[in-house]
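Data availability excerpt. The first of two example chains:
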Amino acid sequence: MSDRLDENLEQNLPQEVKFNSIDKERRTLFLAGLTIFFLGFSNFLNTGKFLFTFPINDFVLTAVAIYFLILNFKVAKINSLLLVAFSAANFVNNFYNLELFFNSEEMTKLAESLLPDFAFFMTLIFYFTLLIGFVLKDKSITSYFFLASTIIFVILTQFEFLFYLYYVCFLSLPILLFFRKQKDSKQYKSVYYFFLLFALLNTTKLFTLYFS
């Protein structure tokens, strides 16, 4: 009843109000991408090389996750909390971020601890929680195929020459949401745009490391 009422209200909204209320995730992705691009372009003007300042990527991702949590807390609380948890684990997984908080001696001890492996493991746990949650809800052959493919990709990342598949793994959920026409659903819209942003940020990182 309430969903039908929301749809009727949405249909009667002026176009400019619809844009402001519906497209916040999309605009967030656009603004974050534009910011990253202009930072890279400013480096190009200064150095002659298109260098993306990828160390700030994880701060951007975490800020977006928190914003999506605030934005969707009432309609997608669990998924939004999982995005924040994922971004936190990913922040620690990219170990260079911790240099902001620890000195070189402390960083050496942390590197020798189980923290890096634990952070890596937790990023996968949070991602698969989101992915499996959708698969169990959707219960389609397509969903099961994407889940199986993602698991295979994760296994293949254990081979050093296939490390890049680690980044491909995190595209499975947004692609699946797109094909199952759930990218704009209340429960998964923020998830869809969050992992598109994650893919964009990883692309800029790999570009800077290997092609600049």
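And the second chain:
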Amino acid sequence: MKEELLKQYADKETKYITPKQKEKVIAFLTKYKDHYSEETIDFLLNEMDKDIYEQEIALLRQIFVASNFYEDDSKNPYLKYLRVFEEYFSYDQNIVDVGAGRFPADATLLKERQKSGTIAVYDPNILPIENKDLIIKKEKFTLQTDLTGQDLLFGIYPCEATEAMIRKANQEHKNLFLGLCGCSHYNDYEIFFLHKDPRNWQEDMYYLLRGTNQDKSEIKVVESEYPILIKKLK
């Protein structure tokens, strides 16, 4: 059935993406079809035909990076975060990218700019990609994750892993660059029900970062679509 969906869409005309771009997306989904549900493939194919710079579906954005669609750096949705990153940190260190997604778009762009150092990528749903430049960890990032030799924790919308990132960064004295998501991730249902506005959760994550900051590192909040939390060791 997945094959039929992909074949059907291959014959459809598109308005916004080019035939070559459509071909690359279908080739990507065909290659990794065993790692996407039929419903997800159907959804992605139906959402694909939009201006690539206005695309909001993260799974499609990741495929666009994998397929080198973003030619205009000024509009690349990932690079807006890296431009903020550059104001505070060097790429040339050992970086852990948490919650990287099916295809590690952030890590790929970080590695392109890195002259020295390593990038380890954590996500339980990451695809079996072939990339010798990245250290792939198909697992959840937790409080038990070994950070020996690592310098900085990096995450854009890491969702459930956010609290663990903050606690680990402070416990093990690591730099932190964390783009919060627009969700609410309270584990307690009653708290979630009373404070389901994402701004409550985002504020709590900021206070958690400040409250557990034992090494008195510099902490900043950069306003973006959602707040970016930054912890820089002195």
